[in-house]
Amino acid sequence: MASVDQGSIEETIGALEAFGSREFHLESSRQAAEYLLGAFGDIGVQAEMQYFMVGDTTVSNVIGTIEGGDEDAGMYLFGAHYDSENRDVYDLSTAENITAPGADDDASGVAAVLEMARILADADFPGTVKFVMFGAEEMGYDNSGGCRGSEYFAAAETAQGRTYSGTAVLDMIGYRAGEVNKVSLIVNADEQALTESMRDAAGVFGIDLEMDLFVRPDATYSDHASFWAEGIPSMLVIEELDSGMFPVNPMYHTSYDTLDTLSLGQVVAVTEALLGGLLLLEEGGDDSGWVLVFGAALMAAVIVSVALFIYVRRRRGRTGDDR
Ligand SMILES: [Zn+2]
To answer: 170 pairs with which residues across the strands?
Structure first.
């Protein structure tokens, strides 16, 4: 049984950052999508492109699926956007020349989703789980985008009669503003089961993560809102917010949103809490053996990842995680 690996998360964020910019009009964005399709293949998860148009630009979502063996178990989804944006870009030529590394926004979320897929690929989870990397979440230099990939995806799922027991969108989970790992969970009404379960998991598995719950149906600035619009339960998982419900990360949508400004330990903790939440949700099912095996592996993973985190911090002797 695999456990949450900080090195895998770091590798994914670094690889996406290396594209320079993933502005959805650019060839580099298409290459990033191809990279993610290959990354699903590398971990043995069946994946496909879902193409859609934004104006004259063909954009894709990258969809990984792990089919569950139990038809009575729920269907779940974890999503994040792979495109990026720089607030100083106003046309195609500047989009090509001004970088938008998007390590936090949202390579951090993509890395966590890919890591969950890697672990669940070996976990024999009873339900079906989809892992979707969305395109064109950002507005783009001509403001033609904005949650376009998730809108296309959610509408297509509804049209095909697919229902979800729980979905989570991860958008900016790597910046740590204070001394502790902390994220915000935004829901539109009552907590969905997955939200409650994720919060429970921190206590059950001893995961080092504070979670603030916000019931804010007006907070529609990321891909979770596309699910809400289709009546699909969803939450946004996002790092610490200011009073206006926007991220406090000062590097957001600039050339400075890079891997070295992130807390990988926080990304690991969010990944563990979501996996733990998924585990607890299916705990009532028949397959208690699965729960025991996976639960033991997860607790071991927490211990290992905390030890690794401390080791890496000491070795690097840096304080970047504490800002
Ligand atoms: Zn974002």
So the answer is: 237
